[in-house]
């Protein structure tokens, strides 16, 4: 459903209301579709909306669908690994690898 309005400068702004929206979270070869419910997108944030080909394969075959709890654990592990890498790099700055 789209709702139109006019902004301060007289430009047409179309707000979009998505029903049954979900966020696809991908970590490595794992993915999960997390339901968001009703989602309102402000018109100035809309660039392009198009249709998907429902018959077309969305993901490569090696991707594995996992429950939300498992994808959250995978996200945390990935974030922790990134933080550790950053802190190790910071401790080694004195070596000046550039």
Task: Give your account of this protein's structure.
The longest helix has 24 residues, at 68-91. A 4-stranded mixed β-sheet has the order 1-2-3-4. The N and C termini lie far apart (53 Å). 2% of the residues are buried. The radius of gyration is 20 Å and the shape is extended. It contains 1 helix and 4 strands. The model has no long low-confidence stretch (mean pLDDT 80). The chain has a single domain (2-49, 56-93), classed as SH3 type barrels. It is α+β, with helices and mostly antiparallel strands. It has one helix spanning 68-91, and strands at residues 2-6, 12-27, 30-41, 64-65. This is Sm domain-containing protein. GO terms for molecular function: RNA binding.
State the domain count: 1
* CATH architecture tag: Roll
CATH level 1 class label: Mainly Beta
Count of extended strands: 4
Gap between N and C termini: 53 Å
CATH topology value: SH3 type barrels
Which parts are unreliable, with pLDDT below 50 for 5 consecutive residues or more? none
Gyration radius, in Å: 20 Å
Helical content stands at: 10-25%
How confident is the prediction overall: mean pLDDT?
80
Q: Return the structural class.
A: alpha+beta
Largest sheet: 4 strands, mixed
How are the strands ordered across the major sheet? Answer: 1-2-3-4
